[in-house]
Every structure is written in structure tokens, then in C-alpha cells.
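pasting input
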Amino acid sequence: MIKVAIMGCGTIGSGVYEVIENNQAVLQKELGEEIRVAKILDLRSFPGTPYEKLVVNDISLIVDDPEISIVVETMGGTKPAYQFVKSCLLAGKHVTTSNKALVAAHGTELLQIAREKNVNFFFEAAVGGGIPVIRNIGTGYAGQVIEEITGILNGTTNFILTKMDREGASFEDVLAEAQRLGYAEKDPSADVEGWDTCRKIAILSSLAMDGEVDFEEIETEGITKIDTADFAYARKMGTSIRLVGSMLREEDGFSVFVGPMMVGMDDPLYSVSGVFNGIVIRGNQLGVTMMYGSGAGKLPTASAVIADIVEIAKNPARNVPFGWHAGKLSPKPAGARLHRFLVRFDGADAAAAQKTAEALGAKAPVFPDGGAEFAVLTEALTKDELKEKLAAFPNVKKYIRAALNGIA
Amino acid sequence: MIKVAIMGCGTIGSGVYEVIENNQAVLQKELGEEIRVAKILDLRSFPGTPYEKLVVNDISLIVDDPEISIVVETMGGTKPAYQFVKSCLLAGKHVTTSNKALVAAHGTELLQIAREKNVNFFFEAAVGGGIPVIRNIGTGYAGQVIEEITGILNGTTNFILTKMDREGASFEDVLAEAQRLGYAEKDPSADVEGWDTCRKIAILSSLAMDGEVDFEEIETEGITKIDTADFAYARKMGTSIRLVGSMLREEDGFSVFVGPMMVGMDDPLYSVSGVFNGIVIRGNQLGVTMMYGSGAGKLPTASAVIADIVEIAKNPARNVPFGWHAGKLSPKPAGARLHRFLVRFDGADAAAAQKTAEALGAKAPVFPDGGAEFAVLTEALTKDELKEKLAAFPNVKKYIRAALNGIA
């Protein structure tokens, strides 16, 4: 029998217990033996639950238990998750985690320890919830130069933006509804400011570039400034607005940003709506692919942990190549990356608007149904070039990135 | 140095050569050694190409060459591909193929031989072109009960249907254009009759059910009868029509069909347009995921072969769990599966149409912009139930499956 310990019995942790019980038959068939949760570390007790008697309060009862070979970390945060995971790895136990904060902050070191101890440190559930994106980068894209990863990586903000788009509702109203529905936290900053997306694209960039990409070096902008007028323009242009994290391999390095982006109807990300996630990966020979699925949620995320557990159980005595290697990689400034931009200006004079459009390589200005303003969709240029050009326009209101391809 | 042989130097075969050359640096980094194509089996010669001198005409020069450890089969068809692949496996060589006909017809036996000889028989490129769907089912969905796979698996027919939808063009006109563009064969039967999709969903079903699903037992219908009026109704209902292959796990077995299906705007398959493929996989704990990408094409398909080669090269001395096991599994009749249906009727009488709609659990009949007919979108029922109900209506023109979820 394979014995698993779970550290942190919140939503994901209890989900892992459930999936192991629910899918025991298929797991036994795949692994050729029984697999059970033997201990659950939590400071709370869970009276009345089927795992009531598995709960322990002391990490050493897991670290020092020779029968436990696989540890699942679903506590979240870095303290004490980092110390606990490190102790487990040093004790020769395999670890799988759903904790993006831990992976983004300490992944490089923990991967290295796992290699040295000949165990595995997996984190399929840390990005994209149930979408098997991390394993895929390592296997499905083997032999491929990954040139770009652009993903809708946060379900909460995607739910908000989709609602704003479809219902013409304001950010504040939809956020309040998302909070009522339990899709958004009481303090929604980590989601709406883009910090969650930032950690996830840092992890994906580290995988694609095979080195440590520090999430603190990634230019990050959230969705709090997106308003109903932005969506009205987007709709008039046959597009929508999504919060993306995006990494682009460049001539001598790579760049990364997190921010809102206009995407056209033929963009595979356009149809990723509600709480779903979608991740576009472009390989140099393979072209564009996308993976779509539940980016969060108890059972989908727990299922990604289970996929890790199965791979560990099939490779109990070896470190399977996974993750990235040591060595810090700094992204190039995102301001030098080519985009198109939606730029909004004050003013209702048609001739002036047309001139503005021409100066920015746009076909024609777009006017709203009401209000003394207009917008243009620029030709491809860098943010730095855009800023330089916009210096000549005192009536600039704001600008939003737009996808380079797929918008008419 | 790892030496590879390619059997069949057509589009995919020459693509494999190209990707190995183009991505030699990344391959060497991943494998820790050089990897080169050593021989290419083809009856033609290729003067002026960089691989001119690699061409051999005799299979025994590959089978008997102890230096060649990996053989790529990209000949297509089953004769002589089956005999050649079998000989290579029996000689202890790993094989990867892009040949869905071979895998659908002989996969079970070839997988078994590979296990006995402790080598690998991989076929990532046989379904979904560059989309790493096959490997994903085995790893990303590990520990999961796969309840449904529904995919747009043929780029040619998807190109045709997308064009028909967007331009209101007829099947015949778009087919002729697709042939001009090289997206459709001169004899397009394998695509437009659904046979290609049939073999692919047979392979995916075999993987999901872990047994041999005979493609000849799958109810298969193509797109030749889809007309502009069908699309006009679909658009009025906020949907589109796609050719899908679909497997559903049922109480005591599974069912499979290939045929046109209406999908709503929130269906992840709705946005899979043009020559792209998209494959929805639903796990019992994971929920819905979709993989999207180039379903065909030289370099995408060759890239999938390369991913196989990398996994082989990393596991040179063992049979990696892959594919399905022996044992024939017969699908249940697809007529017992629940769907909704778009049903078209002759007649323009509003009251009669309303009565028809009610009899089929539809909200209201939909009338075209011209012509003495109407259509209804039924409630959920099986095809067998539908046929029984339609027996009372002598004015039935035709019906098309519609997705159970996602249509208002």
C-alpha cells in the first residue's frame, strides 16, 4: 500500500482526500496497489468527517514516519509550507504541491533538493488548476523551442471581465457579485491586481526558459482600471478584454508581463469565459496550441495533485526530469515588446480624431455611442514607442494592450 | 549519438527530418547527446535535398542495422506499413508513427509486441496532429475516470464547416475551394464522410477505455448533407455546426459516434475554427478540459513525432506504459445516448409548427428568412426516442444532433 500524507486540509487538501477515495478503483488499476491517505496535518480537527482520525498536529509525525512516501502540500503561503516541504524532501519523501506562492518563491531550491535526494517535487496543480499544463510543457513540447506562453491564468478576474463584457456591468458591481458567489476573496487584491497571474506566469516562464524567473521582476498590472467604456470599444471592434500573463522568447532573452489585453474573436483565448483558464503555448515547429479547463476549484485542482501522485507512484525510486534548473534569468523590459494598443482620447472632433488615428497607424477612429471621446487601435509598436508618440497628444485618456494578431 | 530511421519521406516524414535538424540544439540539451536521421526508406530518390544520401529502398537495411534504435513510420496506410513496423518492433527497435490507419487497425497487436520486446510503440502524431492529446490522456488524466471525449478531429471538414458558417457558402463550393488550397484531397471521401474522424475517435476511445475499440463498429456520418439552411438555423440559435467524434462512458460500457453536431457559443468547441482541431476531455473529478491546436500540417505533426522520439530516447531500455491493453470492447449503440436535436420540417403554418415544437419539448419553432419550412431544437432525448416521435410527422426533412449543454 502506498501511504500519502496531506499537509493542510482546506479546500484542495480535502479534495485530494476525496479524489483518492472516489477514484480508488482506477488508481489501484493504474498503480497495481492500494493507495490511501494515512495522515492529515492540520491545526484544526474535523469531527464527523471520514478523515477525522487521520488528523495530526505535528509535522514530525509525517517527516519521521517511514511508511509515508508521498506528501501533498496544500497549505498555501510560504510559511510554514516552505520549511515543511523542505523537511519532507530532505527526509527522502516525494512532495506534490498546489501552492504557487511556494513554487514561485522557493521552487528552484526545492527542485534542487529533490534531485539531490532522488525524489520528486511536483506542482502540476500550482498553475491552471486541473489543466495539465506543466507536465505538458515537459513532455508534449519535448524537443520544441517554446517561443511564447500567453495565458488566462486567473478564474476570478476572468469571471469578472466576462461578466463586464456580456452585461455591460461595472468592475465594482461584478466584483461584489463575485464576492457574493464565493468566486472572489473578501480582499480581492491578489486576483484583481494581477499578483496571482504574475506568480503563475513566472512559474511557466521558468519552465519554458529552464531557469529561475523572479516574479518580482515581472511588470504587473491588474484589471481595476478597466471600465465599461473599454468594453464598449472592444465590442465595437469585435474583440474582448482579458487579463493575461505572457512570456515571449526574444532574440537574446525573453520578456514577461501581466496585464489586460484585447483579443479578437479568432484568438483561442477569446472563448475562454467565466472562471475557466486557457493557456496558449507556441512552439517554434509546432505552432499554436491551447489548453483549456477549470483553473481552480476543489476537485479539478485536487485532480492535478492526483496526476502528480500517480507519476510519483510509478517512479518511486527516481527523480523524474521536471521543473527547471538553478540559475537566475532576468526578463528583458516588457516595454520593448511589440503589441497593438487600444488608446482612448478626449474630444469629439472627427477630423482631429482621424488625424490621431493616422498618426498611430490606425484605420479609423472609433466613436462611442455617447460622450466626447474616441479610441483608436494602433498598428504594431512597442509600449516605449507608443509612449513617445502619445507625448504629442495631451488628450490621451488611457491605453490597453491588444493582441498582435487576430484583430481586424 | 542516437540514430533514427524514417520510413516514408512524404510531408510528415520530411518534416520529421526538418524538425530534428532545426531543433538539434534543444534536442541535444534535452537528451544529452546528438540525435540524427541515419536512413530514410522510400522508393523515390530526392536529388538536391539535404537527405539525398540517406535514402534506402530496402527495409532490411533498417531492420538489420544495429545502430538504428528508433524508427519513425510516416508512410500512411496499412500495407506495407504494418509489416514494416512489426519487423522493426520484433527486431527490438522503438517505433513512433503518425499513421492513424495503422494504429486503428493494428494498434493492439503492435502495442503488445512492443511490451514483449521491451521497446516502445508510440503514436502521438496519429490523433490531433501537434496537439499532445494521447500522452496527456495517459499522464495529465492519470487517476481520473475519463467520462467523455468529444473532438473536432479533422481539419479539412472543420475548414469547410467554418467557411460555410461564416460565408453562407454551399458545401460544394467550399469543398472546391479547400481542394484548390490543398486543404482537401482530390478524393475527399476519407475526410468529408467522417472516416478519418472515425479512426481517430476509435484510437482515443481505446485509450480512455483501455481496450480495443474497432473503428468499424462506430456509427459514422459525414458532412456531405449539411446545407446552407442548416447553418442559417444554427446561426439564428446562436450556435454553429461541427463534425465531431464523441465517446461517452455509460453505466455499463460506452458509446461512440461520428457526426455533425450543433454547438453553442459557450461550448469550448465553438471557437475551434478553420483547420484547427479541438478535443474536449471530461474527467469524473477534473471536469471539462480542452486541447486546441494544429490538427495537421507538416511541422506540427512532425513535432508530435519528435515528442515521442524524446520520450523514447529518455527511456531507451524500457517499455513506458502507453496505449491500451488487449481485449476487444464493443461500443453500445449510439442511438441510446442523450442529445438534443435540430429537426427541420416542411410547412409554414405557425400553429402547426408551434404544436410540433411542443411535441418535441422545444421552446418555439424557428422560421427561416424565406421558404416554407421551420425547425425546432428538441429537449434532451435519445436518437431512438426521437425517431419514434418523428414517426408521427410525415413532414420531417432532416435532423442533426445538438450538444446536450450550452445551447440556450
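fyi The longest strand of chain B covers residues 239-250.
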